[in-house]
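Researcher: Quick one. three chains, 725 residues in total.
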Amino acid sequence: MIVALAAKDVIAKLTEKFPGALEEAGRDAILVKADSLLEVMTYLKNTPEFDFDFFNFVTAVDYYHYFEVVYHISSVRHNHSIFVKTRCYDRENPSVPSVVSLWQGADFQEREIFDLFGIRFEGHPNLKRIFLWEGFQGYPLRKDFNR
Amino acid sequence: MPFKTEPFVLNFGPLHPSTHGVFRMRTTLDGEVVLDIEPVFGYLHRGIEKLAEERTYTGFIPLTDRLDYINSMSNNLAYCLTVEKLMGIKVPERAEYIRVIIAELQRLANHCIAVGSMLNDAGAYYTPFMHAFREREKILDLFEMVSGQRLTYNYMRIGGVSQDIPPEFLPAVKKLVGIFSHFVDEYDVFLKQNEILLARAKGVGILPVDLIINCGISGPVARASGLKRDLRRDDPYSVYDRFEFDIPTCENGDCYDRYRIRIAEMRESLRIIAQAIKEVPSGPVIADVPHLIRPPAGEAYAHIEAPKGELGCYIVSDNSIAPYRLHVRPTSLINLSALRQMVRGWKVADLILIFGSIDITMGEVDR
Amino acid sequence: MEIESHGYIYSGDEIDRHEGEVIEATKAKSREAIPDPDAWLEEEVKRNIFLTTLDTAINWSRRSSLWTVICFPACCAFELIAAEGPRFDISRFGMEILRASPRQADLMITAGTLTWKMAPVVRRVYDQMPDPKWVIAMGACGISGGIFRSSYNVVPGYNKIIPVDVYVPGCPPRPEALIHGIRMLQHKIARSKAVPDLSELPNPFKKGDRQ
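Model:
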């Protein structure tokens, strides 16, 4: 069974290393502040106890006051998984650090989020539109997009 | 004196016979050897995730058919499982068994096309493809008996399936299982030791296991390299935990292994179907859900082992009749993440074969 | 295993920008449908031209061996391939050639949803086909955009980009429906004028006729 790790346990183990950067968001999702996202993800990937090496997907949701980027990662050896979320409150130039240096699977999906939402990923080697063409005005999946 | 060469860029345009749909690659070639490819998507981007926000939950099911249009039933199943998880609905037993039989029949139909078109790309122009299509027509007849449609079925509903199977369905499935195992054996005998296939596919396009895990690749492509991960065993959904089946894996991860593993999976699917048709209980085929579905606020993610890999659906709901945000985990797009490393150093003809062996559908890549 | 975190050897930024401009230009000038080529109807109404034996012979040979160019973006493609398959054989109508070369084709069966990103490509392939050429719009997406009509990237019907002769409804249409559409096109070809009048041909020596 792929067990979804309970967020409480994960936060309890990570709080000493990353004070103030984590909180719980739902039963199996942790919410991380955008500045410490890369360190938390590196820690989750490299620590043998968690060993989250399988990158499932990344997507984004537009709640009118903020954008929320949702990652789903799991571990092949331990057979558990977790959702990691981060928020960005800026609607003009939203930006989140990129995890391409950790998992290559994030490459195309982060480009897709940039294309459809406009969220920039710092550290992505090739951030340009993937589904729509250069010169398309607007970001379609935002709630205030009108055709 | 050494030959002085310069790399040039060749465009495998969107309308190309071997690219399995509208996929564009800008390949940098040094003579015939591939140095780099840059994939360009979006030629079939229909905005399904945006259209989801304008439709009701049940009204979205026909759109899920068109995502990976070869395996429509699997897409329906992934979406319905997610909404059922969000609402906490329990599906009746008869519907669960029908879903398993239909999902495994869909896996057989998909692997027919996958193997047929991979051999098409290898140069066996149309003969194995036509044989595979002839058998696929028998499966499509069964689907037509059940849902009335040949390609995009719109059969599963939230809480079960839309209508009960007719009485002649189960004997027809039993007859098909008998015929199909002969077909798989016959197909395999022709091709397993074929020296052209061995020369073209053995050792070509090797995908190492650590790259698979890093990119998130799943499905037969991952199992062909040795990663033993199958959601029917690791995270059982529906009633898969009641059946006995093996998870075949291969060691090398080249194109020949990706062919062999699909043949092995077809045999395992036949085993599951043979067990399932003996135990189908009677009862209702859909749970007691309201016509207009309004899930509670929250989010859910459910995934299934679709024939191409792990297909999942992530839904955020705000207690209204349409989803607030719906995202489909795109199996084919993620399976393409490692394409650059797989084709580097091979020739143009091998590039086509490697791409065909990954077995993608552009409807799922572009959504 | 190293993670691919460098850019591509050849950067396609310039090409992408040019492609974007072409797509925006196509979108701007495709607001209305191109009218269906109905010239054959007028000829039938006139009816003082008799179809000569030469016309009949040429029409018979043209309609009995239509060669298709591949244009299959989406789901209808599999019904087209099934129509080519052993069960609904369209090779008995002379159409088993399904090559990717537009220069050798005279029929384009558009099997799939057309998006704005794909529209200039389809127009270019259509322009590369030599005359006489026909188009069958297959499926609901080909006729009017289908189930995706309200999307931001979908062209509402192929007849905004290329002129269409026969429309085959269905989502996807069964192979029998597609064969019915092909037969309709064959009846249409049988009634059209094949040998042009010499006075109507463009004169290469006259200025203004050269293209």
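Helices of chain C lie at 13-29, 39-46, 53-64, 76-84, 119-128, 139-144, 175-190.
Researcher: Thanks, that's what I needed.
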